[in-house]
């Protein structure tokens, strides 16, 4: 029998709690739900008012993995939804605004992906992102070298960047900016990616062409486009282990000498939050927003 749980006055049916979703560690669906319940305080502010694209993996990473952008069938009426403009025409999408909605969405078994704008101003970027993706044999160690260059370059333009692991192989940089069109943010990010390639020719590349990427870090600037999304801070990823897109300090980036030093799984997050709080909290403070030149 599916247990019914009450969360903030909402009744939720949470299913298959003993199901193993991460075979490498035996991490279960119940543990996934516990992870989201205990990180909700820091996760929800990064989700709020942003339409969520779900990357679902209900049978674990070895099963079917698929994106869901439209409101899933059976979504409770109390979950916030809104019409969102998209290239192929407007669509109704989910907004995870509270703990009950988060636990309902987590029960679907999903990664959370969000755009760089909020629903009140679709297509007006309030965040700038860089997805640093290493081509083997490069790893997150090389991503850290590129991240440090980008941090200094952004600072020269009055933009303060923060880092998080992708939860996969790479590293993400994010910064809060004063609202600018997604087109302008994308153009600026591409310009910096090109500069990075020129400054670090043996390390960085701004083009997606796979044949050019072995041993280098692809500085993916394209996720600033209005239609694109990036893994939300603190989301679990559909990997063999329950890895997390985890905020990291710049000291950790500077001292990174092996991929293991910047690999974090769900059990790692509670002590990190106790020690650091939300390292990406400054992204929520518009007073510190930079202005694109």
Description of the structure:
The protein is of the alpha+beta class and 293 residues long. Helix content is 27%, strand content 24%. It contains 6 helices and 16 strands. The chain has helices at 29-47, 99-107, 140-156, 182-199, 250-254, 266-276, and strands at 4-7, 10-13, 20-22, 27-28, 53-56, 66-68, 80-84, 91-95, 110-114, 124-134, 162-165, 171-181, 204-205, 217-220, 230-231, 247-248. The strands form 5 sheets. A 6-stranded mixed β-sheet has the order 13-14-10-12-11-16. Strands 6-5-9-15 form a 4-stranded antiparallel β-sheet, with helices on one face. Strands 1-2 form a two-stranded antiparallel ribbon. Strand 3 and strand 4 form a beta hairpin. Helix 1 (29-47) crosses helix 2 and helix 1 crosses helix 6. The chain is globular.
How would you describe the oligomerization state of the chains in this entry? single chain
Structural class by SSE content: alpha+beta
Q: In angstroms, what separates the terminal alpha carbons?
A: 58 Å
The backbone outline, from C-alpha atoms, is globular
Which value, in Å, is the CA radius of gyration? 19 Å
Strand residues, percent: 15-25%
**Proportion of helical residues:** 25-40%
Mean pLDDT: 96
Order of helices and strands: EEEEHEEEEHEEHEEHEEEEHH
Keywords: Ligase
InterPro entries: LigD_pol_dom, MtLigD_Pol-like, NHEJ_LigD
Organism: Streptomyces osmaniensis
Pfam family, one: LigD_Prim-Pol
What's the gist of this structure?
With 293 residues, this protein is an alpha+beta fold.
